[in-house]
Design a protein that fits this description.
Order of helices and strands: EHEEEEHEEE
Strand order of the largest sheet: 1-4-3-2
Shape: globular
Largest sheet: 4 strands, mixed
Strand content: 35-45%
CATH superfamily: 2,3-Dihydroxybiphenyl 1,2-Dioxygenase, domain 1
Distance between the termini: 24 Å
Helix content: 10-25%
Oligomer: single chain
CATH architecture: Roll
Number of domains: 1
CATH topology: 2,3-Dihydroxybiphenyl 1,2-Dioxygenase, domain 1
Radius of gyration: 15 Å
């Protein structure tokens, strides 16, 4: 397995609940797990991330919902429409509905379809095409 240069590790309150959200709803697969450490390494297409149940090891302060305040993780997927449908079908309300946005990059505009959803601990996930 080739590891990305940047792989976020998210502290979660309930690893099984997060596994169900990321795996069953968002389609991430478990690459490997360390159950004794309450840890999962997940991937979907070219996205990699790690989940670890809160153990105090990485904490720099008190964790309060919503976790990750001030950050959103943009992740590119091959079929953002299908993923959005999966989120809705699971009964999860998106943080921002599926829309098309234009972002200026120098003299050109980057057009992307995107939606945002919060995971069970409040981390903000932005999925784009």
């Amino acid at each position: 397995m080739k590891f990305n240069a940047l792989i976020p590790e998210l502290t979660v309150t309930d690893l099984e609940r997060s596994r169900a959200f990321y795996g069953d709803v968002l389609g991430f697969r478990i690459e490997y797990a360390r159950p004794e450490k309450r840890f999962l390494f997940l991937s979907r297409e070219r996205i990699q991330l790690m989940l670890e149940e809160e153990n105090g090891h990485w904490s720099v302060g008190e964790l309060r919902y919503p976790f990750g305040r001030g950050i959103n993780f943009e992740m590119t997927v091959s079929d953002v429409d299908a993923l959005y449908k999966a989120v809705l079908d699971a009964g999860i309300a998106p943080f921002r509905e599926l829309t098309v946005h234009s972002y200026r990059n120098g003299d050109e505009d980057i057009i992307q379809k995107e939606f945002l959803v919060q995971d069970p601990d409040g981390y903000l996930l932005r999925f784009t095409d």
